[in-house]
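Fold Annotation — chain and its backbone
Next Lines — sequence and tokenised fold

***
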Amino acid sequence: MRKQILTTAAILIGCAAATGAAAVDIGADTRVGGQIFFDVSHISLQNENSSGAKIDAAPTGTGFDVKRFYLSIDHRFNDVWSADLTTDAQFSTASTATVTTSTGNTTVLTNQNSSGGVSEVFIKKLYLEGKFDRAFVVHIGSYDMPWDRFVESLYGYRYIEKTTTDRLGFSNTTDWGLNASGSLGDGDLVTYAASVVNGAGYKNPTRTKDVDFEGRIGVKPADWLTLGAGFYSGHLAQINASNENFPSNTATRLDFVAGVNYAGFRVGAEYFDAKNYKTVKDAASAAFGTSAIVTASGAVPVSDKADGFSGWVSYAFDAQWSVFGRYDEAKLSKDVAPDLKDKYLNIGLAYKPIKALDFALVYKNEKVNNGSTSISGADANGSYAIGGANGTRNGTFDELGLYAQWVF
């Protein structure tokens, strides 16, 4: 199976390479395209130990990363029905062991992480679309969640950084389930999207006890102004037959965003308020990342809240050059470790030589105070632990590099 997947990916890469800046037309109704995020940069990550000494931590160093590698096939059956397959790739380190059973020896996976020497191709999106009207479009399968893509369209610099809820682990960009979306009024005055999903994201289509819900509504009162609000509720695919009678919490999230796009300026702000996604291991360590949905032992789970905001601004001098900046701040554990905070910023200069390419010289800085957490990003498809020990120490992340995006 793995060989077949990799062979398919190789064929798609060959098709893409033959085209340069434009997607391939394979027949009248099928298209192949892709998107790649890559960068070369220097990272410095220093975390404080229990005595307050600053210790260099991975991924400190200089290197080249390919963070996203999407390959897509779109096929249109008729004016209503179409389908999409989008693959992604990650670098993986996996260890195995041989287990003897009644039927012989079996090789099993004993450990796997997302930063290593093996490349794996997996499904990002796989859906059937029914477009019955611009006001009612249905997607069945693994499809974009309502919130993150909406905010990304206002932000405009996804290849530089994820949006704040995605970066901090309070949302999934894609999940398996059903989605309905549409637009109403002249100039897309009102847009909406609603999804009923498994809850664990596109990498985990596991069937669980209940489904999760996410919804979003957008309003565009003027051509240059967009407003949006969103809501999420569910168990993040953590409730199943073995623990359905355990005490549990429900994860909820409220989202608000406003974006201005006028005369080359992009200005926007996002706010989220999340409850029971994750909490800290204990108040003394303030190590954030423990599930707040259900415990393995059946004990009553801790209830915890988080909130934060993200603000961005950019200005395009012309079709090729722009400057940009962004600042995020979040309280990750308001109830258990209220002093645990994450602060993030980036600034940069972007250049677009042709339609298919974007380059940006970027500086990033992040600080986690009074505890620690794990952030999705930095090296290729991995994450980094940032912060300090004992719930009183800090961590600092700095990066300077050249980021790029290739769309074909």
